[in-house]
Each structure stands twice: as C-alpha cells, then as structure tokens.
Amino acid sequence: MLSVLQTSTSLHTLQLLHVEVKPSHQLSILSIPTLKALVLNFSYFFPTATKMPVSSITSLSLGPVNPPAAIKHTLRLFRSTLEILEISFIPVDVPLILEAVQLPRLTCFTLYSVTPEGLTEFTPRASSTITKLCIITSCEPCRFGLSDGVFPKLREVSSPWWIGVQLVPGRPVQVFYDTEFGEMELSNLQADLVLLAQSTRGIKVLRLSTSLSMHCLLQYLATHVTQLQRLYLWMNTQSLMTIPLESQQPPIEGNLNALIEIHITFTDRIEWCDARPLTCHRLSAMCLWICPALELVTVSISDSISQQMFKLRRMRTGEWEDLV
To answer: pTM for the full model?
Structure first.
C-alpha cells in the first residue's frame, strides 16, 4: 500500500496508527515527493542501517509507543528538513535525545506530559534553534530552574501559566499564551507580571485567565507589561459587572500606549440579550478612558444556545463603532 503512495503528486500529510514501520516502508514514505507532515500514532520506525533518501518532511508528530532507539533513528532520518516536532506521552529523556541528534532547522516544539524535571534537562545545544515552545502537562505547579543559555531564541510560549512565567525571564519571548483556566490570586499575579517584565524583547501578546476586574488587571499590566499590544482574556461575567463607568474610574498609573487590541472570552454562560447592552456600554467607556491607542475590542459570550461575539472598533473620528 505504501509503495503505491510513492507516485502521489498531492499527498501532504500521512498518519499511521498501530504500525511498526519496516525499512522497506520507510523507504516508500521518504520517497513521496510532496509529503510534508508525518504523524506516528502508536507507531514507530524500526531502526535500520539501510540508506534512505533525503526527506522532504518538515513536520513530525511522535505519539505513544516510540522506543528511544526508534525516536533517535526517526529524527536522524528527518534531521536536515525537520522544522516542527511534537512528542506525546513518551517516558524517555527527550532533551538527551535532542542533544544527541542535532536538528538545525527545528523551530517549533510541542511536548506533552513533560515534568518540571524534564524541562531542567534541556541544554543550550538541544534547544538552540527553538523559537516556539508548547508544553501540555497535568503536573502540579512548582518552581524549577533552567540552565543558563537554554532556549536562547525563544519567541513564543504556550503553556500553563506557572511554567511560562518561569521560562520568560532572560529570554526574548514576545508572545505568551496561558493554556489553563484558573483564577490567580492578586499577590501571585503581581509577582508573575514582574517575571514577565524580564523578557529581553518585551511581551507583545499575552493570554491569561483571571477573575480580576478589568480596571484592576489593566492597572497591573500598565505597571509591568508596558510593551503589550494584544491582550486575550478568559474572564467570568462577574468581572464584567465590576467595570465602573467612565466618570467613576480612577486613572491608570503606568503605560498602555502600545495596547491596540483586547479580546475577551467569558467562561461562564449568561443570556446574550441581557449581557450585550451592558457589555458594550461598560467596555467602550473603559477602553476610551484607559487605553488611548486601542483599536479593536472583541467579546465572546456563550449563552444557553450558542456562542455569540460582538466587536467594537475605533473609527478615525475617535468614536466607537459596534460591528455586530
């Protein structure tokens, strides 16, 4: 079957499930001229010394049941072309494998079920090319330390909040997406924003989950994350109700002059017909008063039937236009 695919002129992605890929099948896969993405789900490449053609694959996903020797063999096959790597639920020392098999073009790395101890084993050599890092884990929050020079080119992080705020300091991270819902304590948020401020390039895009009032959150962002351009929020509707009207708002101390977009998703369900008028009024008042450069606000609300979204856009006159 795989040998037939060698003549394909349009196959871009191949996914294998529960397959032990023998050398002859590996040869067939690497000979598909248009293949760019390979997913090995409960499958692995059987190690072999057979000479293989140069791969055109740039994206590789390794699922469960990949022995360490098979991982090393597979990465060596795609060493010269691999740009995106995803490793899922594999109880092996991934950093040491990356240390042994250099991937000079690897920029995007996703790691599932990693432990803090696993992160501390990364070396500058194993992480030198990675610019985008995604970490999915169910570990309890804890502190961990990274070696000096690890992830020197890191630009974007997607991870639980407690991991991201430890990855950012001293690295050129500009984009950080929190991947978990949670309500941070105010004291923790203040300390964590201080850590985010230690990015060597400044955080430009940030996503987080909070139950703080919008005004309170923007105050802390204006103090610590002053280069922020786009803000994505998971909030509950109670936070919305605490937004004061313009005449009641205390001034913000700090700088939010770079902030041009705010995108809000409410995590609890409310009736759209009740929430929308109040949301429009309070958000437009808050935006005009606090964020002088703001151009776009989007709000997503899930009611009992569906998810709705409205947008507010600042027109050239300085007034706000309701786009939905």
So the answer is: 0.88
